[in-house]
Fold this sequence. Notes:
Blueprint: H1 4-32, H2 36-41, H3 50-55, H4 65-88, H5 94-104, H6 114-117, H7 125-153, H8 161-178, E1 181-186, E2 192-194, H9 197-221, H10 226-245, H11 253-275
Antiparallel strand pairs: 1-2
Helix pairs in contact: 1-4, 1-5, 4-5, 4-11, 5-7, 7-8, 7-9, 7-10, 9-10, 10-11
Amino acid sequence: MVTLSDRNTFFKAEILIAALFLIFLAIIFGAIIPVYPTAAEDTARRAPGIIQNLVSRFLEPNPYAPFASVAGAVIYALVTLILIYYFFEKTPSPEILFFALFVLSFSFEGMRLVVPLQKIRQIPALYLLMASRALLFGRFFGIFFLFAASVYAAGLEMQKQQNIIMIIALITLVITLGVPIDVLTWDTSYCMINGYTSMFRMVEAGVLLITMLSFFISAYTRGSNEYILIGVGSFLVFLGRNLLLSADTWVTPLPGLLSLIAGTWFICTRLHKVYLWL
Length: 278
């Protein structure tokens, strides 16, 4: 079982990782911004996403919108993790550790900066492949841990928490290593083209539905309406995540970030209220 002290150590490590990604972004910012238009010229296709499918006929991709989405994702991760640590330092909520790992996954969006970076540096293809796999690992890792938070809320035994973390990390690693990736092509959000895209989107949709259902079941089994709002929050963070991570126009980064923040607020404030007096 993960104690409060162990969990807070996890939080501190996550904050450090998110801070390192933000430092990386700040260091290369000046160098990569001028080459974004060049990188945009070499895109193979439009980034998939809810809004992109609706506006692709009317709005052309903006080369700088993906950088805004990356910066927003990395800053969101760091700020949210700091707030989670501050407000949950003494609150025994098992779900918050998994949600914090979901939040950490947004830091891995910094790997998308490798695409414009390779325009000004002779980066070996191996490093491009490693960066792309790290990005995929972060994305799968994130949705699986949000799902794990909902399963815990529905009644999974707390004693299995450490095992769940290791199992999810291992499954995510196996999936990530098995996905074919073309390091020579990327879409308009500067994600390198990988295989099984349609299948993974179906999996994401299924995870979203099961996650929301698990939180709603928790509201019934635990007799707390707070979990209904947490379920709503899970929908908002999934929506915000989709908008932010696939943004290639100025229409999407801000609504995506706002939806993400709203969903995070629902989840964290309701979880804090549920466990406040324990």
